[in-house]
């Protein structure tokens, strides 16, 4: 038998000739750079910047929407107070309904997309 | 006592440089404020605030005589409802709640001013027309609630009812009558809604 031995693309041991996913189940097709479990790139190009800039812009937009809605609620509260003091109880309740619906909008803006940073 | 070490100073600098309130924190704060406003609006609509100058009470004699240009203050219909009866220069008699519709300060009668500027709230310079109760200038959002005053044969002045801001005297009287005696209100021609 000469040295080095002649190369053959397989092993004499059958269990080592199984496909790669069977032999190494922890290695996925995307193992390495594009491993989905890797959430941060670490130091390197882009390090320290937003990982998902479009999510960040959405969060800013949600804050803006919520503040705008709260300004509307402040206006509704003044209208409700004025209406109630003038005796228009029905108008006051309509304003309260508007305020409650606005609160639901703000609640949705808060709770939707918890991964946004 | 020694000052902070360079490491402590660097830590303080690092902490103050960080944005401690994130946008998610702002969202949580804004949501809390929003819920508070919704609860506040519910309380207002449910009647937690006192409606000044509103309600019913037995007729109250407020003055034996009132000369033109004179005014008399009294509490009607409740003891917290400050009110005023005024004899205008032409002899007509008017009555108003003197709780300002802006922030509930006391409204004053100015007999040295024109009738349209006769009632004045010194807190924020609100001015009301002494004959109509309408806002002439300043921040008040509503006219003054009315106190219905009448004069008997002897010239005595009586407060007999109230009318809310912008409400007619008849509507106010009917509303008061409905609250006290619905059957009598029906017989007097006061429908469910006037």
UniProtKB/TrEMBL annotation, chain A:
Keyword annotations of the record: Membrane, Transmembrane, Transmembrane helix
Disordered: region residues: 1-55
Where are the membrane-spanning stretches? 63-85, 91-110
Name the UniProt record assigns to this protein: Uncharacterized protein
Q: Origin organism of this chain? A: Kitasatospora indigofera
Automatic annotation (TrEMBL), chain B:
Please give the Pfam families that the UniProt record associates with this protein. Rieske
The Rieske domain covers 58-158
Q: Example GO molecular function term? A: metal ion binding
Q: Required co-factor?
A: [2Fe-2S] cluster
Q: Which UniProt keywords apply?
A: 2Fe-2S, Disulfide bond, Iron, Iron-sulfur, Metal-binding
**Membrane-spanning intervals of the chain:** none
Task: Give a Gene Ontology cellular component term annotated to this protein.
Answer: membrane
Q: Which SUPFAM superfamilies match?
A: ISP domain
Superkingdom of this protein's organism = Bacteria
> Could you confirm whether the keyword Kinase appears in this record?
no
Is-annotated flag, keyword Disulfide bond?
yes
Query: Sorted alphabetically, which InterPro entries does this protein's record hold?
Result: Rieske_2Fe-2S (IPR017941), Rieske_2Fe-2S_sf (IPR036922), Rieske_Fe-S_prot (IPR014349), Rieske_Fe-S_prot_C (IPR005805)
Please describe what this protein does: Iron-sulfur subunit of the cytochrome bc1 complex, an essential component of the respiratory electron transport chain required for ATP synthesis. The bc1 complex catalyzes the oxidation of menaquinol and the reduction of cytochrome c in the respiratory chain. The bc1 complex operates through a Q-cycle mechanism that couples electron transfer to generation of the proton gradient that drives ATP synthesis.
Q: Give the protein name, as stated in the record.
A: Cytochrome bc1 complex Rieske iron-sulfur subunit
The scientific name of the source species is: Kitasatospora indigofera
